[in-house]
């Protein structure tokens, strides 16, 4: 009997496993997580290209490793002509949190038809057989060679009908008034016309809420779309939406005849409901973001509303200024109110913009709340704060400041410069305070509980402060952050006004050509509300 011989890669895997055991649990715990591809079910013809939406939940690793991508056929053979090995855009010694990027692969014209398993992993550049053990995200499996299955590629077997795939995030949850992001997915073939996509939310009784839909034109026109189609749609939930679980049903229709829905094919995990609507996920709505008109998560009976702007009727000059008091209004217009929100965006030249209630509304004590979605990119610095500038003392309460341009090394953003964290600050300043030079004392500086991969640019969140004579407490999405700060009594006791601004610089670095400009990268505010205590 011949002795069993391991392949070099299998030997390496075994040696790595023994090494991890020898190093102990601390070393084994410091592992990044492999996630499924953003579009885990791909299809194409030989000679075409596919885009792999790579996803990791990362921790800094010992060195900069390469990422390998193997395509394994039905017989378990690695097709070496389909090599997509690469260095990730953020070195693995520095990556942290949510790491997401695209990798495009050209398929050889001679590639056999069939279904291929896509397996990825990390290896040492100086020793490609020395692969790195990782942990597995939902739906990911691993073989004995530290290769992690993250999706499939079907070659040469395009469906004759467009397939509806499950949402990239099929189990959503939110509160009324908040927003959700629908990660739309199709396995597409060109169709007879350019159709609209409808999105229906159907409650437990089978009732579609007609006032709550997300119909839209897809990112690629249906007359020319082909292969894997993936894009995101943001939807704000009505503030009066009833709690419960809704099925999310999608499909296509011609604009000239919305009731003539198009027959599609359901992908894996998708079911059709008999009305040419395809169930691609669920939305669970809990509680109410505005119970009986009170702040999120608070007893409404304890408050009386004193100021609000829902941004439904244009920019209210009776409520807001468009510049801070020591500057004049910049002629470059990089803000507007539209579709129920205030939008402030990076414009050419990166003009600082401040929207505030100075001289129009101020209040001593109370609950101050904003619901907003943050911008991305190098240099952006959105903020929501309270301030008082007359007199010797100039108290300041920073409810939210974000600096995503620092990237993962700074703790404020991810590798794509999306905000994953925000800061809270209490400033005490006197008459000698200079806006740019003099230091200030703080009772709280950059309290940062959200370095856990939450992308604050992907949807709307609520930022708030409860300011009482006895102290100050901060809130995020209705949940208290940290303790009440008691040592503020006697200092924060004068009327303060509200500021919303998008400035540039500070811990976010300097904006550059990579910073997305225009309305599509807005600091977007759904509402600002202020209550006083009864």
Task: Present the secondary structure layout.
Blueprint: H1 8-23, H2 25-29, E1 33-34, E2 41-44, E3 49-58, E4 66-72, E5 97-106, E6 114-124, E7 127-132, E8 135-136, E9 141-142, E10 148-155, E11 163-164, E12 171-174, E13 179-188, E14 196-202, E15 208-213, E16 227-236, E17 244-253, E18 265-266, E19 271-272, E20 278-285, E21 303-309, E22 335-338, E23 341-344, E24 353-356, E25 366-373, E26 380-387, E27 396-401, E28 423-428, E29 441-445, E30 461-468, E31 471-476, E32 479-485, E33 497-504, E34 523-533
Parallel strand pairs: 1-8, 2-10, 11-18, 12-20
Antiparallel strand pairs: 1-3, 3-5, 4-6, 6-7, 6-10, 9-10, 11-13, 13-16, 14-15, 14-17, 17-20, 19-20, 21-34, 22-23, 23-34, 24-33, 25-30, 25-34, 26-27, 26-33, 27-28, 28-29, 30-31, 31-32
How much is the average pLDDT? 83
- Tally of helical segments: 2
> How many angstroms separate the termini?
88 Å
Shape: globular
**What portion of the residues fall into strands of 2 or more residues?**
35-45%
Structural class by sheet pairing and helices: mainly beta
- Portion of residues within helices: under 10%
Number of strands: 34
Based on CA atoms alone, the radius of gyration comes out at 26 Å
Largest β sheet strand count, sense and barrel closure: 8 strands, antiparallel
**Low-pLDDT segments, ≥5 res:** 1-29, 288-292, 430-452
Written description of the protein model:
Strands 21, 22, 23, 25, 30, 31, 32 and 34 form an 8-stranded antiparallel beta sheet that branches. Strands 2, 4, 6, 7, 9 and 10 form a 6-stranded mixed beta sheet that branches. The chain is built from 2 helices and 34 strands. Helices cover 4% and strands 40% of the residues. The chain has 534 residues and is mainly beta.
């Amino acid at each position: 009997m011949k002795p069993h011989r391991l392949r070099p890669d299998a030997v390496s895997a075994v040696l790595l496993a023994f090494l991890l055991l020898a190093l102990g649990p601390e070393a084994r715990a410091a592992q990044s997580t492999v996630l499924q591809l953003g579009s885990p079910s791909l299809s194409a013809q030989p000679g075409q290209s596919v885009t792999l939406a790579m996803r990791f939940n990362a921790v800094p690793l010992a060195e900069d490793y390469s990422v390998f991508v193997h395509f394994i056929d039905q017989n378990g053979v690695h097709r070496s002509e389909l090599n997509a090995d690469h260095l990730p855009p953020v070195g693995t010694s520095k990556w942290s949190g949510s790491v997401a990027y695209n990798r495009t692969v050209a398929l050889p014209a001679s590639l056999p038809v069939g279904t291929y398993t896509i397996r990825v992993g990390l290896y040492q550049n100086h020793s490609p057989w020395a692969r790195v053990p990782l942990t597995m995200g939902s739906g990911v499996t691993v073989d004995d060679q530290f290769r992690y299955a993250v999706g499939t590629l079907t070659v040469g077997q395009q469906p004759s009908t467009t397939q509806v795939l499950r949402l990239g995030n099929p189990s959503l949850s939110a509160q009324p008034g908040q927003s959700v992001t629908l990660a739309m997915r199709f396995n597409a073939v060109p169709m007879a016309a350019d159709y609209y996509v409808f999105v229906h939310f159907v409650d437990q009784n089978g009732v579609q809420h007609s006032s709550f839909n997300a119909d839209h034109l897809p990112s690629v026109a249906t007359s020319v779309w082909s292969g894997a189609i993936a894009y995101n749609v943001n939807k704000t939930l009505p503030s009066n939406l009833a709690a419960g679980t809704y099925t999310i049903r999608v499909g296509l229709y011609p604009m000239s005849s919305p009731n003539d829905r198009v027959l599609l094919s359901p992908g894996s995990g998708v079911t059709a409901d008999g009305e040419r609507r395809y169930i691609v996920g669920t939305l669970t709505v809990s509680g109410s973001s505005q119970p009986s008109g009170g702040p999120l998560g608070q007893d409404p009976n304890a408050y009386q509303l004193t100021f609000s702007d829902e941004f439904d009727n244009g920019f209210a000059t009776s409520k807001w200024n468009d510049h801070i008091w020591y500057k004049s209004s910049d002629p470059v217009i990089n803000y507007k109110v539209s579709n129920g929100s205030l939008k402030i965006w990076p414009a050419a030249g990166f003009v600082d913009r401040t929207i505030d209630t100075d001289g129009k509304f101020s209040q001593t004590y109370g609950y101050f709340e904003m619901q907003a979605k943050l911008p991305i990119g190098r240099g952006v610095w959105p903020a929501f704060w309270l301030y008082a500038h007359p007199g010797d003392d100039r108290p300041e309460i920073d409810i939210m400041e974000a600096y995503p341009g620092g990237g993962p090394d700074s703790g404020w953003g991810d590798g794509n410069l999306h905000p994953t964290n925000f800061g809270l600050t209490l400033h005490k300043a006197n008459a000698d305070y200079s806006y740019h030079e003099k230091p200030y004392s703080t009772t709280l500086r950059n309290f940062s509980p959200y370095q856990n991969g939450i992308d604050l640019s992907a949807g709307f969140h609520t930022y708030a402060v409860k300011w009482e004579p006895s102290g100050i407490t901060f809130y995020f999405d209705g949940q208290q952050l940290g303790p009440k700060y008691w040592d503020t009594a006697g200092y924060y006791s004068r009327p303060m006004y509200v500021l919303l601004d998008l400035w540039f610089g500070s811990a976010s670095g300097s904006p550059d050509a990579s910073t997305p400009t225009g309305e599509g990268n807005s600091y977007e505010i759904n509402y600002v509300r202020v209550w006083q205590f009864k």
